[in-house]
Amino acid sequence: MAKKIAVLGNGYVGLLAAVGLADFGNTCIGADVNPDKIAALSAGRSPLYEPGIEEYLNRNLSSGRLRFTTDLAEAIQESEVLFITVGTPSLEDGGADLTFVGQVADIIARNLNSYKVVVIKSTVPVGTNRWVRDRIAQAAGAVPGKDFDLVSNPEFLREGRAVQDFFHPDRTVIGYESDRAREVMFEVYRALNVRSVPFVWCSLETAELIKYASNTFLATKIAFINEMANLAEAVGADIHTIAQSMGMDGRISPKFLHPGPGFGGSCFPKDTRALEAAGRQFGVNMSIAKAVDASNEAQKQRTGLKLARLLGRTLDPGSLGGLQIGVLGLAFKQETDDIRESPALVLVRQLLDAGAQVRAYDPKAAPNFAREFPEVTYYEGAYEAAAGADALVIMTEWNEFRGLDLARLARAMKGRVLVDGRNLLDPAEARAVGFTYEGVGRGQPVGRGTVQGSSPL
Ligand code: UGA
Questions:
Q1: Is there a single domain that holds both residue 169 and residue 268?
Q2: Rounded to an integer, what distance in angstroms lies between the CA atom of residue 252 and that of residue 231?
Q3: 58: Cα within 13 Å, side-chain hemisphere
Q4: Residue 30 belongs to what domain range?
Q5: Which of 69, 199, 207, 313 is spaced 20 to 30 A from 155 at the CA atom?
Q6: Ligand 1 pocket, mutate which of 171, 214, 215, 341 (most atoms under 8 A from CB)
Q7: Structural domain total, the chain
Q8: Is 450 contained in some domain?
Q9: Are the C-beta atoms of 82 and 136 separated by less than 8 Å?
């Protein structure tokens, strides 16, 4: 039977959960303390850019299964299942800030008017589910397993593909403690059960660690291939042929082996640091997580250094004075307006500190970027940003950059330096129209490696 659900916190994860769970046939109330957000969502407008989200938002608003409110207490009292989807930002020491999680737990404790399953979907450090359970039990004088249950249900959505990921997950992980809670969660996700998506039923701590292990492992793959790309550059090898060949080994898989300017976003950097912090807390040396974080920070510095080298300059203060640098792509990845921990933030800071003028274009993320960097000039298209530039850098893997007319780009620019931070362009074509081109790990001087019997990565 469909469930009555409250989704507490309507940021990225919360919005997707509210919309998706309503689409599964449940009745959902999205609750958030921010009145502007709630007004926008109630009117069918998403405060963040995510392909397809508004269509699902409006469809479920019209069906009557989804509504939004600023009244968390009412949403809690009316619901049997409470999803906690508030933010858990990084603390100075890499740990996660649980202030919002604690606040929501206290509101739940004050409004526990019937048996409820409290589901933590926010990414939280190991032990947090138990901590929240005990906090609610103590504050409400309630008994876990009888008056309420705690469930850990980490999410694996990728920004830009979140709608698709929500409805077609690789797996659904549910940490639980009582059969009653398990039955409730089975109903919440009945639509996925019917489609036979794999379900992982496990303990609270196992569910918590699955999330950190998955994200840190993927981050490790990227950091590894980035370092391999740097080495390929140095020895004159082609990283794509290397990555493709590695990926042919089923144990490795070709996914997440694309080199670039470093990973960003609200998840990989934060979760890698949080895993390391968990190791410190429990006396276990998580040296790989630590190395991945350091490696990624170094990778984020490399694009600017490469650009300065190609221009025959350095990144010392004033060294890029009088130069105009075009930057294509500001978001941390394609199909999002999110700039959190974006490598473009590091590059633009380097360029401005070295005295350059920055001309930027991003299909979605410019308004967010402009809040951090008002001194950058923003343009409506790639060719406009490139006009008169001494050099151009591609930072985000937006599809539209793959199809750039390189001859037109060259004509628009003043200089001919092109740094392709995502390897989106054909090096031979770029060089043929006069560019001094460098990608990432494309050191092989003559053409590209070919691997027969398979499509290129
Ligand atoms: C990531 C995970 O992929 C999701 O499974 C997880 O649910 C999510 O974090 C989360 O914890 O909420 P996301 O951060 O949205 O999703 O984006 P990814 O597609 O994983 O990309 C992360 C970063 O790695 C981006 O900066 C991207 O450009 C970079 N990347 C990715 C590479 O540089 N190379 C690759 O091969 C893949």
A1: no
A2: 20
A3: 7
A4: 4-202
A5: 69
A6: 215
A7: 2
A8: no
A9: no
| Ligand 1 pocket list (CB less than 6 A) | 123, 155-159, 215, 218, 222, 256-258, 260, 263-265, 267-268, 332-333
What one-character DSSP code corresponds to residue 84? Answer: E
CATH code assigned at 373: 3.40.50.720
CB count in 10 Å sphere of residue 210: 18
Does residue 175 share a domain with residue 54?
yes
Q: Rounded distance, CA 22 to CA 63, Å?
A: 9
Which pLDDT value is given to residue 445?
Answer: 54
Residue 157 alpha carbon, nearest atom of ligand 1 = 7
* Residue 267 appears among annotated catalytic residues: yes
Q: Which two tokens stand for residue 290?
A: 């630590």
Q: Are 239 and 442 in contact (CB under 8 A)?
A: yes
Q: What is the pLDDT of residue 446?
A: 46
**What is the rounded (10 degree) CA torsion for 254, 256, 257, 261?**
160
Alpha helices in 256-372 (DSSP H): 268-282, 287-310, 343-353, 366-372
Catalytic residue among 7, 267, 275, 395: 267
- Give the amino acid at 318: G
Q: 414 and 313 in one domain?
A: yes
Token pair for residue 9?
Answer: 């916190």
DSSP β-ladder status, 417-420 and 436-438: parallel
CA of 213 from ligand 1 middle (Å) equals 14
User: 87 lies in a domain?
Assistant: yes
- Ligand 1 atom nearest to 219, measured from its CA: 24
